[in-house]
Amino acid sequence: MTSKLLEVKGLHKSFPLKNSLFQQKRFVHAVNGVTLELNEGETIGIVGESGCGKSTTGRCILRLIEPTSGEIIFQGKDITKIRKQEMKRFRRDIQMVFQNPMDSMNPKLTVAEIITEPLIAHSIPKEHRYRILKETMELVGLSESQLNRYPHEFSGGQRQRIGIARAITLRPKIVILDEPVSALDVSVQSQILNLLQDLQEELGLSYIFISHDLGVVEHIAHKVGVMYLGELVEFADKDQLFTEPLHPYTKALISAIPKSDPDEVKERIILQGELPSPANPPAGCKFHPRCAHANETCMSLNPILTDVNGRKVACHLYQE
Ligand code: SF4
Predict the structure, then answer these.
(1) What ranges do the domains of the chain cover?
(2) Contacts 24+ apart (CB under 8 A), 26-31
(3) What is the pLDDT of residues 48-74, one digit of tens each?
(4) Ligand 1 shell residues, CB under 6 Å
């Protein structure tokens, strides 16, 4: 039986907007009431267009950005309530992989130094470090002969392997992957996805996999959350979501996935208009200006995420 590892409840993150002196203070609600649960050994995919708040959600969970409100319960403890120093203990268990590993690596450090940095930061005794380094390199498919090379000497795929190695060197329980394959060629993407699946099995990892690419998420996730303008609009098991999406936005995203079978008949749903500015979101359901099913209620009342046949959907079409 799988057990609950992480619970995010009503997570909010607002950023203040710059105002002139006499204007009322305004905020961008980048993340607005996101709620989800992650079980041991499970992968949750979070998808949506850029600017929907998915990366901010990931960074808030790790407290790289401080949430405005909400609870993040890890191993029974609300980590939004603990002090920054105490957070170090939890960072050992929750790690992050970024889209471009070069942005988060010191180019002056060798691969060995990059991967051992977290071991030093978490006071892992010196006598264990080399063994862990060698084991980790092997786990991600890098060889010992590459230990003393610098990040710029590697290809994009190998650099992402270094980024993953650094994230798992402390053997965390959860890894938050923020667009980890978006910058890679398709053939390299599948190698990295397979590597992540192997590591999950071998180390019992749980993932939060953030991506704008539904095809990639379909490959790796067990459950999927769809975000729109800072809100979770649908959350379901992967198979349920991809075979029978309910929310009109999810339907449009899925209809845009390229067909793998050329004989497959698939009707593409073209969304009208642009993604509204998060600084000035529409009233009611935030998706209503682009939704073909919008009615009067949608324009004034924002639907809440509700249980519908074993999944969660925020849409008036499915509410009594
Ligand atoms: Fe469309 Fe209305 Fe559902 Fe929003 S609540 S997705 S506008 S039908």
Answers:
(1) 4-19+26-93+172-318, 104-171
(2) 26/279, 28/278, 28/279, 29/230, 29/278, 29/281, 30/56, 30/230, 30/278, 31/56, 31/57, 31/60, 31/67, 31/230
(3) 998 899 999 999 999 999 999 999 999
(4) 247-248, 285, 287-288, 291, 293-294, 298, 303, 315-317
